[in-house]
């Protein structure tokens, strides 16, 4: 049996009830949270205003290109997912996380499992614990997974499953449209896009993962952290958040390195670019380093709908993007990349060197001065 102190250090322990906490214990107190200023990213914030893309706008592709090159993230409007559905999804998630800990624990993630209830996967790499609960799900296995939480398969279960299935259908269709928009934004012609699709089946084989986040109110939000800063590893994520800000995007200076606070815009979704998309686009579209902070007065919910390649697909820079240049990254699968990231966290002493992200990407980049990895190209690459 682990001792209680050992339990407190285990990132996957659920001994400590965040919802009832009256103070932030040492186990949940992070260093370095205030190294960089936090600035508002709302419309009217000038340079720091988070880019907005309206999918109905005929010039949407240009806006996507600019935002993906300069920010790695944008607010998405005109996406067609009904606001009323987003509200039902949020209410369902709130109801699920409000269940007794013992119910949620039946779905606890085991060891290295990608799916399940508990802290997010990256929690493994840090000695401190995040002020949140998470639940990663495969939308293709929704009903059996949620039966762990609701074994009686009663009304709440049916309702939540129904809402999540409706949501998955809408988001899957949106993700396909967005992938096409990204390819247009890269400057690919119609025939090139058809060629990429025929060769790599990017859209057809794209996988979806849903990750739910719950950030309870926190008695001392300046010392705690909802989600440790990271880049998402896949292609891109569609994020939905409650009307409580908390997502911070990292921006390099000049004028200064800073965190830009994502505004809560009713009905809008957020798009974040992940590391494998940076690889696929040969570094043209950048993944965004981001974190989530917590709040004293209001709990917050977010949902990330992750799109990524099939597990066995090697992802390397698209030859249509590399053109006459050189590939900047070697090709690898998503699971291989996750292993590289694990090494990056281990080498970097986790909490310190990762303040700006990018370490794992550097580890798979091809140095122009050596030929290593040049013939390492695979499925989704040149
Ligand atoms: C499909 C994915 C994407 C994962 C891993 C797996 C399931 C859970 C996702 C997250 C969700 C929370 C942040 C993150 C960084 C984490 O720790 O778990 C994500 C990670 C990634 O983007 O790498
Ligand atoms: O809660 C948020 O806004 C961010 C969540 C996040 O980054 C993630 O789930 O990957
Ligand atoms: Fe994320």
From TrEMBL:
GO terms for molecular function: gibberellin 3-beta-dioxygenase activity; metal ion binding. It comes from the Eukaryota. It holds the Pfam family 2OG-FeII_Oxy. GO terms for biological process: gibberellin biosynthetic process. Its EC number is 1.14.11.15. InterPro entries: DIOX_N, IPNS-like_FE2OG_OXY, IPNS-like_sf, Iron_ascorbate_oxido_reductase, Oxoglu/Fe-dep_dioxygenase_dom. Keywords: Dioxygenase, Iron, Metal-binding, Oxidoreductase. Residues 206-309 form the Fe2OG dioxygenase domain. Its cofactor is L-ascorbate; Fe cation. It catalyses: gibberellin A20 + 2-oxoglutarate + O2 = gibberellin A1 + succinate + CO2. It is an enzyme of class 1 (oxidoreductase). Belongs to the iron/ascorbate-dependent oxidoreductase family. This is gibberellin 3beta-dioxygenase.
